[in-house]
Amino acid sequence: MAAEIPKSRLLFPALAVLLIASLTYTVNAQGIGVNWGRAASHPLPAPKVVELLKANSIAKVKLFDADPLVLESLSGSNIHVTVGIPNSMLRSLNSSLKAAEAWVHDNLTRFVSDGASRVLIECVIPPF
Ligand SMILES: *[C@@H]1O[C@H](CO)[C@@H](O)[C@H](O)[C@H]1NC(C)=O
Ligand SMILES: *[C@@H]1O[C@H](CO)[C@@H](O)[C@H](O)[C@H]1NC(C)=O
Predict the structure, then answer these.
(1) Measured from the CB, is residue 106 less than 6 Å from ligand 2?
(2) Which of 16, 48, 108, 109 is at 20 to 30 A from 115, Cα to Cα?
(3) Cα(41)–Cα(24) distance, rounded to whole angstroms?
(4) What pLDDT, on the 0 to 100 scale, is given for residue 42?
(5) Is 49 within 8 Å of 36 (Cβ atoms)?
(6) φ, ψ of residue 7 in degrees (nearest 5)
(7) Looking at ligand 1, which residue's alpha carbon is closest to its atom 2?
(8) Number of neighbouring beta carbons within 10 Å of residue 84
(9) Which of 37, 55, 50 lies closest to 77, judged by CA?
(10) Mean pLDDT throughout 45-52?
C-alpha cells in the first residue's frame, strides 16, 4: 500500500524549478506544453529536465534549437517535440532545399529512427 503523491501536489514545486531552467509553459486542450529555452545562467542538465517533465506528465515540449544533448535526453521519453530553427540559421536553411535537407539529415535524422529510443519530433518551425 504505497502512498501515491497526488499529481497536483507535485506539479507546482517542479514547475517552479522548470521556470528557473528558463522553461515556460502553456496549457491548452492537449494538456501542458513546455517551452525549453536554454539561455538560463545555470541551466539544469538536459537529463534532469527530462526527468522533471516526465514526473509532471508533460506531453509536449518546444525547443529553440536542435541541441544534440537535449534531443538525446528526450530519446524514448514519449514526449512530443517541436524543434525551433534558430534565427541565425534561417537564411541558410531557406537558401536551398539541399541546405534544409542537409540540416535535417545532420541534426534530426538519427533521433527519429524506429526504435524505442526514438525522439517523437512532430514538427520543425521558425523561431517563435
Ligand atoms: C526565404 O526565401 C524566399 C524565396 O527566396 C524569400 O522570399 C523569403 O523572404 C525568405 N525568407 C527568409 C526568412 O529568409
Ligand atoms: C545542423 O546542421 C548544420 C549543417 O547541415 C550545421 O551547420 C549545424 O551547426 C548543425 N547543428 C545544429 C544544432 O543545428
Answers:
(1) yes
(2) 48
(3) 15
(4) 75
(5) yes
(6) -60, -35
(7) 94
(8) 19
(9) 50
(10) 92
**Percentage above 70 pLDDT, the chain:** 73
Mean pLDDT throughout 34-49?
Answer: 83
Question: 88-113: per-residue pLDDT in tens?
Answer: 999 899 899 999 999 999 999 999 98
Q: Is residue 4 helix, strand or coil?
A: coil
Question: Whats the size of the chain, residue-wise?
Answer: 128
Atom of ligand 2 nearest to the CA of 68: 13
**From the CA of 63, which ligand is nearest?**
2
> Whole-prediction pTM value?
0.77
How much distance in Å is there from the Cα of 30 to the middle of ligand 2? 31
Q: What is the pLDDT of residue 95?
A: 92
Residue 21, amino acid = A
90 lines ligand 2 (CB under 6 A): no
Give the integer Cα–Cα distance in Å for 80 and 84.
Answer: 13
Set of cell numbers at residue 103: 540540416
